Amino acid sequence: MPPTRVLIVDDEVLVRSGLGLIVGSAPDLEVVGSCSGGQAERLTAELRPQVVLLDIRMPDLDGISVLRRLRALPDPPAVTMLTTFDTDEYIGTALRAGAAGFLLKDTAPEQLVHAVRVLAAGGSMLSPTVTRTVIGGYVDGGGPDADAAALARQLTGRELDVLALLGEGLSNAEIADRLFLGTGTVKDHISAILAKLGAANRVQAAVVAHRAGLVRNPRHPGA
């Protein structure tokens, strides 16, 4: 299998270099380029990365604007947002714009490499320390939402079970263990859930779970 192609977008050269060294150290990952926000759209179109690590705050062109441009490209890459703040006010906007994940810049090297692999495989990744802040605090604000509840009513009972656990921040393997299912079955359920909800990724589906009031035991920061 050819290595996963990764583009790093950050306004700080030292950050780009450091992230590049970490990601490039994995034999199955290849950093095909790095740039600031203003160059991201052109390089993505030219280099065709499968995963983009994108700084959420940049002076030349902010990460949200870059994200929207990248998501509008044909066959867009999976994009995860990078920040130094676990309470960044742009998190909710980024997730609604199609970001596949959110990672702190101080994420451990092995977790960063794992995140890139998950994103390349079509999954989503949130730093465990900010899962509750990202979804519970910035996206779903004040109690069950009627529109989200209506979306959830399209799901079967088992799909609702899966969606609720997905909203807790559990991985496919953890959901499988909790519901006594195979991981392949969980993946099939999640694919069906995304299609029925019109969600671009599991992060957006988790947002629906919170807004619909399905999540009873959200994972706390650091859990």
Automatic annotation (TrEMBL):
This one is known as Response regulator
Q: Does the keyword Transcription apply?
A: yes
HTH luxR-type domain spans which residues? 148-213
Residue positions, PTM 4-aspartylphosphate: 55
UniProt-listed Gene3D superfamilies: 3.40.50.2300
Superkingdom, taxonomy of origin: Bacteria
Report the InterPro entries cross-referenced here. Answer: CheY-like_superfamily, NreC/VraR/RcsB-like_REC, Sig_transdc_resp-reg_C-effctor, Sig_transdc_resp-reg_receiver, Tscrpt_reg_LuxR_C, WalR-like
Coiled-coil stretches: none
| Alphabetically ordered keywords of this record | DNA-binding, Phosphoprotein, Transcription, Transcription regulation
For the Response regulatory domain, which residue ranges apply? Answer: 5-120
